[in-house]
Amino acid sequence: MAKGKQETSVVRQRTKIWRALENYGWDALLASIAAFHVLMAPYTKVEESFNVQAMHDIIYHHHHLEKYDHFEFPGVVPRTFLGSLFVSFLASPVVLAMEFFHFPKLYGLIVVRLMLGSFILTTLGFFRRQVKMQFGSQVEAFFAILTASQFHLLYYSTRPLPNIFALGLVNLAYAFWLKRNFKATLRCLVCATMIFRCDIVLLLGPIGLEFLLISFLLGSIQMLYRHKLFVRISVLVDSIMWQRLVWPEFEVLWFNSVLNKSSEWGTHVFYWYFSSALPRSMLAAYPLCLVGMLIDRRLLPYGLPVLLFVMLYSKLPHKELRFIIPSVPMFNLSAAVAAARIHINRKKNVWKLLYLMLIGSLLVSLGCSVITSVASYSNYPAAYALKSLHKIGKVEDGSTKAADCLVHVDSFAAMNGISRFCENKSPWRYSKEEGITIEEFQHGNFTYLLNGHSSIPGFKCLFAVDGFSRLQIQFSLPPIILLMQPKVYVHGNLQCQDVEMKNWPGCV
Fold first, then answer.
1. What is the mean pLDDT of residues 173-182?
2. Which of 41, 202, 305, 433 falls between 20 and 30 A from 408, CA-CA?
């Protein structure tokens, strides 16, 4: 009798484990890949600088707004603090605990990125479960596999960009859309548009048009009026943080769309998203997504508005992959439907070749993602340069005055990995003062310089850090290699004795 109860208990435990894997196994897979990207490349680029610095200041400076970075470096247009406040609220207990145990600030950057990734992947998991309910477990499995084999969606999911904060709400909108909860869908899209990315209106428009048809205009006005609370929250919080009356996304909309000044950062041809951005971000899923909409009519109401979103965005001359990344989850759903159909019919004569091509394309996608991941690791040379400087030029407490460890970080270095999370405590100090010429540095009191110049009068080049340059294909093993070249140089003031006494790698 006791043995029978024990066997029953074991069966129940196995059933619980299986159910947990069935419900959350795919989430664990995607989360582990995203976390791997964070640990491999914890640093950030210039596009993420506002939210990164904001999260740092919220966590470490709290209500002391005069210490916040955005007053000194406001950027081209103001951005909302709401996303940074949300992530900082989640991360603060962990960061404060690490600060108590004297962990470096860099660990705080890892924590806030993991918290952001947790939110984005939670919303993506909610969407995936609706995919399972509407299209079945095989489509769900291929949706997760295709997402896991891609680089950009999971890599960007932890990057504190306005586009990524908006992506979380778009994922929720997609999930409610599959549930036929149209009000919740529009509510999420309106929130994303009014707070994080005004250009999500290009997605809200086609989806709202599909929902409301001829009465779209009236319905949209009513929806915007009912959800003016989102604007009030943004204006209230951001006006306090910016110390002036501001609705950030309206200024962004005016700057990008009305003044069209975003074109100053480069332009691409109309079809660039379809010829470059989507193929690189979706890989094997790109050709499959069109097939999915053709073989399953249920996908047309979902796929066409998202496709129209990308087409409308293509009219703007300044293009970046992150702008249209909210389209990738829905396109992955369409690709998963096509992949599942091929898998189901894999034993039939005509489908065998397609199945082999599917497996091959998934392996190629995985290989491309690995190569891109390795390249991304080498894309933050300034951060690695500062880390090496802290290690080699380590100052014992009390041995040197704080002024003797003043590090100047130029705009190039600041755009290639350095944020306030990379800074050490006293006696290290940092300056991002702009407008200083090469000749003027020797008249200043900087101990170290980080910039893109190989030589500076009055300073000794201590070492250089290589960064990713380009990929090169060769007819030998390995077939693809990453070409590196010196990107960031670290210089030491010749008048500082500490610079002459230490053993530096030198610049070649």
1. 93
2. 41
